Backbone:
């Protein structure tokens, strides 16, 4: 085009800018992660995640009330059990911590969507996401335990099952298990594309889920790979996933876009613990404007293609968006 275009015409005022804005971040986009622990009277801040707490079940209701009052539509529950063993039995116990927390939340807030993270790493004494035999994470025997976990979470009232283990065939196994148990209406939000990332560091402090030997690189993805992400997503779609998650988010915006463009399914982006803690640390030092940085980051995730965002910033963002922060 040869004529002299004046891009600035559409940037001249708040009103015009809002009319031509292509991406909007909304409270409905947010999913708030919560860490639940056993015992009573516990509301303990996680040192590497300022503003994020461990809650025992008696103190969970006050947090849920706040989440609801802010209009956040969904929470994802992570359990931190007292007792760990080789097969992660607390993950699929009827009175396991996530199962009990789910009942508490659904009881007081039936409309709040409860997503259950389905994994074994917080529950196993070795800290891996599957069964360990002779120092190896074995695939198929792990699936059985993940299915049991998912079914027990659905029984407790979870609205969405979110398997995060990255073993092969986990979506198919869980779909089949849920259907057989009569939960064919419960959607699966699959951690379809989950990288072996250093950004999970603070979460592992919070969830006490650091692997006791080795690392997760035999089941989580190599951060260098893009085309493999499409194979992972494809497999999960074929196995019955309803929502595809990409994790982490900020260093993987190209992957969010790829998944969005290639699959006609809702895409969730997990803005993980390390991403949160970096922002918090810089903000505490006064080096950045936390509100503006967080809104810009999350708007970027939406622009990249995320339909929903799991983020520890959710309560703050809901507060800010409730005001006039979106100008
Ligand atoms: C469990 C799980 C992890 C996270 C969510 N589910 C940790 C891991 O894979 O080591 C990370 C979340 C975060 O860093 O905020 N498999």
Residues:
């Amino acid at each position: 085009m040869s004529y002299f275009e004046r891009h600035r015409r559409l940037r001249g005022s708040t009103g015009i800018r809002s009319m031509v804005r292509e991406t909007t971040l909304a409270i409905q986009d947010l999913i708030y992660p919560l860490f639940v622990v056993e015992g009573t009277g516990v509301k303990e801040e996680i040192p590497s995640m300022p503003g994020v707490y461990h809650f025992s079940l008696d103190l969970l209701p006050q947090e849920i009330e706040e989440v609801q009052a802010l209009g956040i539509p969904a929470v994802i529950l992570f359990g931190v059990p007292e007792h760990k063993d080789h097969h992660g039995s607390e993950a699929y116990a009827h009175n396991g911590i996530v199962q009990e927390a789910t009942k508490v939340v659904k009881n007081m807030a039936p409309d709040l969507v409860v997503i259950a993270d389905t994994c074994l790493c917080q529950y196993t004494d070795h800290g891996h996401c599957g069964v360990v035999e002779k120092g190896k994470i074995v695939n198929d025997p792990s699936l059985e335990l993940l299915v049991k976990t998912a079914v027990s979470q659905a029984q407790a009232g979870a609205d969405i099952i979110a398997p995060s283990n990255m073993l092969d065939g986990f979506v198919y196994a869980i779909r089949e298990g849920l259907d057989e148990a009569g939960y064919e209406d419960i959607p699966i939000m699959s951690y379809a594309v989950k990288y072996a990332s250093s950004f999970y560091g603070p979460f592992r402090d919070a969830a006490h889920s650091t692997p006791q030997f080795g690392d997760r690189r035999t089941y989580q993805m190599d951060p260098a790979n893009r085309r493999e992400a499409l194979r992972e997503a494809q497999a999960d779609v074929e196995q019955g996933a309803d929502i595809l998650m990409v994790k982490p988010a900020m260093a993987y915006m190209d992957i969010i876009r790829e998944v969005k463009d290639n699959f006609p399914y809702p895409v969730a982006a997990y803005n993980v613990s390390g991403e949160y803690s970096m922002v918090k640390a810089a903000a505490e030092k006064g080096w950045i404007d936390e509100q503006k940085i967080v809104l810009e980051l999350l708007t970027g995730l939406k622009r990249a293609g995320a339909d929903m965002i799991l983020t520890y910033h959710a309560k703050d963002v809901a507060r800010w968006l409730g005001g006039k922060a979106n100008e």
In short: The longest strand covers residues 30-37. Residues 117, 119, 121, 129, 164, 200, 203-204, 209, 272-273 surround PBG (CB under 6 Å). The first helix runs from residue 14 to 20.
